[in-house]
Amino acid sequence: MTAFQIIAISFLALLIAFSTWKMIQKKARKRVALTWILLWVIALAAVLVPDKITELAHFLGINRGADLILYCSVLAGLVSFFYLLTKQRATQRQITLLTRQLAIKNADDPTEDVKEEGVDPEGR
Amino acid sequence: MRKPVPAVAEENVSDIHVVIAAYNEERSIGDVISQLRRGYSNVIVVDDGSSDDTSKKALQAGATVLRHVINRGQGAALQTGITFALRRGARVLVTFDADGQHSVEDIPAMVAPILDGRAQITLGSRFIEDSSSVPFGRRVLLGAAVIFTRLTSGMQLTDSHNGFRAFSREAAKQLDIRLDRMAHASEIIDQIRRSRLPYLEIPVHIRYTEYSMAKGQSSANAIKVAADYLINKFME
Fold first, then answer.
1. Does residue B83 have a pLDDT over 60?
2. What is the pLDDT of residue A114?
3. CA closest to A86 among chain B residues
4. Residues of B in contact with A121 (CB under 8 A)
5. What pLDDT digit, counting tens, does each position of B60-81 carry?
6. Among the partner residues B62, B87, B235, nearest to A110 by beta-carbon distance
7. Is residue B8 in a domain?
8. Between chain B's N and C termini, which has fewer beta carbons within 10 Å?
9. Count of helices and strands (H, E) across chain A
């Protein structure tokens, strides 16, 4: 076993333990936790039997197992980027709508006689 | 010379709501509102999270003031003001700049086509009549904006990025500004085209002062604005 394998395996084992613990403690939803555990197990397999990844790569027409992993990571990165971008735009939109409702609700109207003289325009 | 447009008839004045989006405009907002209030009673200012005394100055000058607790951009602020004006029963909505570059004297010409039903929307243009007062840099930038608008929306306007606009109640109801920042100008034009409502360009005079120039959009920023608009088209 190489030094890299020892480091990677202990790290992944920690992650698996962490995800499992979170699931047991009900701090994470079961499906989410299981997805993470599945991901860690796949990574563990890739570290333990790199030859199998290379075989899979060859089957897909890619030369090296490392390339297969690289392509997968880039793809995963792009997907998360667009997912977050969409989320971010939706959040921005919600903030604007919230700000708008607040502004309309708290409008300072000089024609309404309920306003007293000397009201602090900052509303504090 | 343009034909003088008679002042707005007394009975129509209360139907008109002037909407101003303002961000850190304490230096100019008071004068702008005072001038407007001489002819128009309904002036709505949306203070877009200013850190200065914009709200205070606007209130003192007699405007109805709405505050965005955080800065959301000019597009967002205009939509807030328009939504509010519609709720207050506005029949004609005018958008006006806070930096003093628009003239109150141009309002009758802007609202007349809407009041007499010739158009649902009017757009102010500084390029229909003599535009020699427009500084060279502005002319280049606005010319590029006009070409950009023709390419992206197909609308043949002479001045696509003028904040001086007027809408009938029906037209304003159809407006839904979603681009919070400066790209809303192009978005509004897209929505006008899609609504198929009749619109007119009206010659207006823009006063260029050192102040309004400093508050205006820089050429470098224009690229950011164009990108914002195009990304939105792509993501819609």
1. yes
2. 44
3. B235
4. 55-56, 59, 65
5. 999 999 999 999 999 999 999 9
6. B62
7. no
8. N
9. 4, 0
Contact with chain B for residue A122, Cβ under 8 A: yes
Cα–Cα distance measured from residue B47 to residue B54, given in angstroms and rounded to the nearest whole number: 7
Which residue from B minimizes the CA distance to A102? B68
**Testing the interface with B: which of A85, A98, A109 to mutate, by most B Cβ within 10 A?**
A109
Q: From the CA of A77, how many Å to the nearest CA of chain B?
A: 19
User: Does B6 fall in a domain?
Assistant: no
Percentage of the residues of chain A whose pLDDT score is greater than 90: 73
Residue numbers of the domain that contains A76: 66-106
The total number of structural domains in chain A stands at 2
Is B64–A104 a contact, with Cβ atoms under 8 angstroms apart? no
Euclidean distance between CA atoms A34 and A20, whole angstroms: 8
Do residues A5 and A35 both lie within one domain?
yes
Among the partner-chain residues B63, B79, B235, the one whose CB lies closest to the CB of A100 is B79
What pLDDT score does A72 carry? 93
ipTM of the complex: 0.86
Do B178 and A95 count as a contact with CB atoms less than 8 A apart? no
Task: Give the model's pLDDT for residue A117.
Answer: 45
Please indicate, yes or no, if residue B1 is contained in any of the structural domains.
Answer: no
Lateral strand order in the sheet of B64-67: B64-67, B42-47, B16-22, B92-97, B165-168, B121-125, B199-203
CATH number for the domain harbouring residue B226 = 3.90.550.10
Q: How far is A86 from chain B (nearest CA, A)?
A: 8
Same-domain pairing of A72 and A42: no
Q: Are strands B92-97 and B42-47 parallel, antiparallel or unpaired?
A: unpaired
Token look-up 């007394």 returns B10
Total count of domains within chain B: 1
SS (H, E, C) B125-141: ECCCCCCCCCCHHHHHH
Min Cα–Cα distance to chain A from B30, Å: 15
Q: Residues B103-150: pLDDT tens digits?
A: 999 999 999 999 999 999 999 998 888 777 788 888 888 888 888 888
Three-state secondary-structure class, residue B107: helix
